[in-house]
From TrEMBL, chains A, B:
GO terms for molecular function: DNA-binding transcription factor activity; transcription cis-regulatory region binding. Pfam families: LacI, Peripla_BP_3. Keywords: DNA-binding, Transcription, Transcription regulation. Residues 6-63 form the HTH lacI-type domain. This is Transcriptional repressor of the ribose operon. CDD domains: HTH_LacI. It comes from Leeuwenhoekiella blandensis (strain CECT 7118 / CCUG 51940 / KCTC 22103 / MED217) (Flavobacterium sp. (strain MED217)). The keyword DNA-binding applies.
Length: 343, 343
DNA sequence: TGCTATTGCTGAATCGATTTAGTGTGAAAC
DNA sequence: GTTTCACACTAAATCGATTCAGCAATAGCA
């Protein structure tokens, strides 16, 4: 049979006090509200005895706050996002906030649904990796004074805080690293999304290639999570057609992962002849054989900055937005070492 | 400046009707409640015009239902769990439920916190991969008539529904597959958890080895997410000490992933000499070089069954619990093929 | 003694929806 | 001519917390 959870009213009746008193004690405001020590002790003892848990839905309705934040990224199972998410969760916990995670899959409709769902449930703040076309929905949140921080990508038309990395520098550094390892024909594999961060990475690649007087070799694959196999076939054909390629720079870690599979399918030994580097690190990369080099984003710093800004915004409304562009670091592993000895 | 969200009351005042009427129309009960077609049309038009979204916190307080389910697994970034989660989300969506995902990390305290957090927020149902020691908290949920379904593992003392696979058969089949491929010295790598499913897998391995008249070679690593490196060192030493091993059966996919890294560290070419199979598939396995064989759980079927049972329990209370043990399938890839040609 | 201040507590409004129990009107039934 | 009933709608209670406004009793002070 169903147990009814006791309400403040039930407790007040048992103890012969008012719900107000119980509520004050429950929220630790007993002293402040001049409740006598004896009564505080009595109420606290009873609360503990029955292991009372307040109904948070009722509390939220009254206070207008849920103490819940939402972390909305492209794909929460992606190493980069899940690491940042985990750190954010820890910081939130210490500040008595809970975090809900969800994946947008870069799908506008899905993201809009999620934003509205959570907004209707009165969550207190959003950290979002914004897909293209989401401006209006985010503006809508901002009009209701719900804190929103953009992450990984910025949207120029939105005057709200963001935390991103310097994609241009990162891509340039990575490309240079391949060049320094002796590679001459470096292909750049990216997705055909008009997102700012992707354009910056491409520009970074181009800059390094031009400075070194090499030739650009670029392939843009369709961004479409359902057609992964098709994408990989295109990549395989591209590699076969450009037999002079001696290195590949993948613009994101999921491209790399699919790409490595394609390379393996062409020839299990091909991976040992190519220089490889990926933008964004992945747990997968240090387990692969050979281990894969990557340009890693500063995960801890990003999480700390995101939460610092979020907590600030939750405390005081109408703060000036902060625009943060952080630096990443190159993680050189086996895949980007000179291969001349093996050839 | 802050926009206040309109409430039903505001709308009722503007339209000069009662909040009751607006609520009926909002919930599509207009006809049933004998509201005239004209008035329904007028209210609907206005609701659409201002793009009214009800306050779901208030609705939940009144109805006692949030239309939210929780999917609580060991690690949501694990391929197996994230796949099942995604399918569950789709089915839920079609039935007007939302799903929240979270990771227990097999940590009792963390899991308890999460269960209480969501219970206090009145979520409608739980699908849980239960860590050891969680019985009482789950019993507590059941006493409050909150539907709970166990997944991946069962807890004998709990009379609630579960969906698991036949771990014994799966492990036996996998081991036999290695034997059939000609391997003679098959090591079994597992974790030192007293969980039923792990014991069943080990028993399956043992049964196949005994039937074939081979020798058991078993290594139990400590389950400890923070000491991955240490674990891997133990594994490496184990492999070095047992130089006669020609195949390895990993009891879970995360063990395999760490194990593959260890094998690579010992010698990049070692992987091509060993037969490898893993319990639980992973996206990583078909990308690895060589591709890794695995015993895969029936992901679609599990998601469908879980949601079928959940929806049934949400509709009618006091249903008889269902105990489902499904079958998995062997996915033979490169890593478990005979290696005799290469030696 | 009379006045204000403080202490210690409570009644009732409130958040924004849902839902029960009606209310007033006009037409049909007897 | 009264009763009944369907229709079209509404007032008010309700969910379970928080919180404002206020009350009675005692203390402090002149």
């Amino acid at each position: 049979m169903k147990k009814k959870r006791p309400s403040l009213k039930d407790i007040a009746e048992v103890l012969n006090v008012s719900t107000t008193t119980v509520s004050f004690v429950l929220n630790g405001k007993g002293e402040e509200k001049k409740i006598s020590k004896e009564l505080i002790a009595k109420v606290e003892a009873y609360l503990k005895e029955i292991n009372y848990k307040p109904n948070l839905v009722a509390r939220s309705l009254r206070t207008g706050s849920t103490r819940v934040l939402v972390f909305m990224v492209e794909d929460i199972s992606n190493h980069f996002f899940s690491k940042v998410g985990r750190l954010i969760e820890d910081i939130s916990y210490k500040n008595d906030y809970r975090v809900l995670f969800c994946s947008t899959e870069n799908d506008l409709k899905r993201t809009q649904d999620l934003i509205h769902l959570f907004h209707e449930r009165q969550v207190d703040g959003f950290i979002i990796v914004p897909p293209l076309g989401i401006e209006d929905d985010i503006k809508h949140l901002m009009e209701h004074e719900t804190p929103v921080i953009l992450f990984d990508r910025k949207i120029p038309s939105l005057k709200t805080d963001y935390v991103v990395i310097n994609n241009f520098e990162g891509a340039k550094t990575s490309t240079k690293h391949l060049i320094d390892s002796g590679y001459k024909n470096i292909a750049y594999i990216t997705v055909d999304l008009d997102q700012g961060q992707m354009q910056d990475r491409e520009a970074g690649y181009r800059a390094a290639i031009e400075e070194a007087g090499l030739n650009e070799i670029t392939l843009k694959l369709p961004f479409n999570t359902t057609a992964v196999t098709e994408s990989r076939e295109k990549l395989k054909n591209f590699i076969k057609e450009h037999s002079n390629i001696d290195a590949i720079f993948f613009a994101t870690n999921y491209l790399s992962q699919s790409g490595l599979k394609g390379i393996h399918q062409i020839d299990p030994n091909l991976i040992n002849k190519l220089g490889i580097i990926s933008f964004d690190d992945s747990g997968f990369f240090e387990m692969y054989s050979p281990t894969i080099s990557a340009f890693a984003q500063p995960i801890e710093e990003m999480a700390e900055q995101l939460m610092r800004i979020m907590l600030k915004k939750l405390k005081e409304k109408d703060t000036k937005p902060e625009y943060l562009t952080l630096k990443g670091t190159l993680v050189a592993r086996e895949s980007s070492q000179p291969k001349t000895t093996k050839l």
